[in-house]
Amino acid sequence: MRGVGERCFCLAGEAKKQVVFIDELPWMDTPGSELLSAVESFWNGWDDSRDNLLFIVCGSATSWMEQKLVRNYGGLYGRLTYELHLKPFLLGEVEQYLKYRKIQLSRMDVAIAYMVFGGMPYYLNFFEKGLSLTQNIDRIMFGRNARLAKEMDILFKSQFRNPELYERVVMCLSQRRYGYSRAEISAMTGISSGSRLSVILDALEGSDFIESYKPFDAVAKEVLYRLTDPFCLFSMRFKECRGEHYWQENQHGAYIRS
Predict the structure, then answer these.
(1) What is the pLDDT of residue 1?
(2) How far apart (Å, rounded) are the C-alpha atoms in residues 209 and 88?
(3) Conformational region of residue 88, where left means phi above 0, alpha means psi within -120 to 50, and beta covers everything else
(4) How many CB atoms neighbour CB 220 within 10 A?
(5) Spatial distance between the Cα atoms of 196 and 53, rounded to a whole number of angstroms
(6) What gap in Å lies between CA 177 and CA 81, rounded to an integer?
(7) Mapping DSSP to helix (H, G, I), strand (E, B) and coil, where does residue 60 land?
(8) What tens digit of pLDDT does each residue of 52-65 get?
(9) pLDDT tens string 105-123
(10) Going by DSSP bridges, is the β-strand pair 53-59/180-181 parallel, antiparallel, or unpaired?
(11) 3-state SS assignment for residue 234
């Protein structure tokens, strides 16, 4: 689990004796499994009558959790009693985490680490004590056996069905810092501006990859979407760059500093 948009849901009241905990529920929903029907039957036919049972389900595929549970209008409608959306670390929490792991970095280097890896503990866990920030970035991102060299492909495939569509939208948004309108995204990606694009944008925003906002000085109240996930921003910008010492050799170059 990488923790991006991780969702936990509670489907019971006050539990004191027993807990049923299912992790990564979306990936149990294989074709023909009738998973939701089974969950609905379990809850409505047996669990609902028991006051001592807490039923918790988790999943990092946020779009599935949103569509199948939060917006469920079938047998699970109105059954959620609590939702916990696990957020990435903030900058200060990244500093605390690295200190806890005895990774010695200056505050400037902590800020750069945050701009590269965001607040994902999964990524920060790859830092090796005793190496500088630039050495760690090369080892994790650019080296021959870099742990996160193919992370973007893995990330979208683990989060979404039809991952190529989501990656196409993220690639589009990575090209301009303040983002694009819905119509511009549709034109640039070839995805029609209908329900499919709405599902994609909602899922990306719910998973903390992007955010929607209205520009302060805009005449028209048109919503813009921009890519905010630091790791995606970094990976999209440097996806073609490789080399055992790429970051150490180019960190002061114009392309990186821009």
Answers:
(1) 38
(2) 11
(3) beta
(4) 8
(5) 38
(6) 38
(7) coil
(8) 788 888 887 777 78
(9) 999 999 999 999 999 999 9
(10) unpaired
(11) helix
